[in-house]
Amino acid sequence: MGNYFSIIIGVMYLIGVFLIPKWRRKKLKPNWKFYELLWFSLCFIFYVIYLEVQLQTYYFLIPSTFLFLFLFCYFKEKRRLVNGLLFNLFLVVGMTYLGSLLVRTVNPLLILLAGITSIVLILLLLIGLYGLVVFLYWNAIVVMKKEGHSLANLLTLLLAIGLTVFLVFSYFSSRILPSWASLLFGILPFSMFYFFVVFYNFLTISIIYQFNQPNYEQDFIIVLGSGLIDGKTVPPLLGKRIEKAIQFYKAQDRATLNPPKILMSGGKGDDEHIAESLAMKNYALEKGIPEKDILVETNSKNTLENMKFSKEIMEASFGGTNFKAIFTTNNFHLFRAGLFAKMAHLKADGIGAKTAFYFLPNAFLREFIAIIMMRKRRHLIICGLISLMMFLLALVDLFFVS
């Protein structure tokens, strides 16, 4: 019976793999890869539940509880960093559960998945930090060649240099430092580990937030501004934000014959000849968007002001607060922009424009630093507690152990 069920699940999965792309191509929002992943997850969940029923146990309810907790918090409010932590807790509990199920069933499929996972983990352990450093140096060279040598474009290089110094000093510290001093040096790796966990949670929820698919019933699309070339020309990065908005505008128009207003948001910088939003409007006009469907917000200087001032314009244009809105920005900036929308009391989620792969590591580092600064007091307290703990351990080692 078990083999028959496994075959049935396998056949159902393969049928879905072939039919989902054909089904999604007929939709206005194809996004078939997301549905392929969802279909695999559903088939795997049914298979795991079947194995549990065969064993007459119901331990799958444990990871399911963590999954439902994440889903409840995420769909209640997508724009929260804690959602990344909740999803990663589900992954840890889920992997532990699957390991337990493997031991209890010795199932071939679970053995295959465990083997693949083990290979990936072994490679990470072997390459680990050294591989990361090599990648960061390579990425830094590419970014500097393509984007210039500004400080914002040097983040991967600075991180690579910092990690190199850390690795070299770590190698020699145990040989040249007394044990109490090594404990004090431990402040750095413990703090680095803490920020790695914070970054991983941020990266997780940033990736999950990319799957946001708003309905074609929006009243407004806010396009977040950025700097202009020579103070007047829309750069490629900003152009992709506008084109993402235009893509949604046309899709909603086809679906409902009622396109949303596109609200260009961005003021005039000190080195710019015109407001960013006016340059953005001209860009959209050249792409064939009617002027009557374009609004401009010309006073904002940062993303939070983008959200606040755009909200005021939308309320005035709509004649109330019961409007539906989304915003567009580059995918690496999407989640932090959502946080600013939340701070502005604007009920709006975003859709992200694609960014060249080489630019993403540097861009996500910049976003992460900005996220850290938004909650800097909390992080300073935690780093202070880590330092205090290691300092006390060093004192104990110096006066009571050495």
Automatic annotation (TrEMBL):
One matching Pfam family: DUF218
Entry keywords, A to Z: Membrane, Transmembrane, Transmembrane helix
One Gene Ontology term, aspect cellular component: plasma membrane
Presence of keyword Membrane: yes
GO biological process: Gram-negative-bacterium-type cell wall biogenesis; peptidoglycan metabolic process
InterPro entries membership: Cell_Envelope_Assoc (IPR051599), DUF218 (IPR003848), Rossmann-like_a/b/a_fold (IPR014729)
Domain called DUF218: residue spans: 219-368
Spans traversing the lipid bilayer: 6-22, 34-51, 57-75, 82-103, 109-138, 150-173, 179-203, 380-401
PANTHER family named among the record's database cross-references: INNER MEMBRANE PROTEIN, PROBABLE PERMEASE (PTHR30336), MEMBRANE PROTEIN (PTHR30336:SF18)
Protein name stated in the entry: DUF218 domain-containing protein
Organism (species): Enterococcus ureilyticus
Species lineage: Bacteria, Bacillati, Bacillota, Bacilli, Lactobacillales
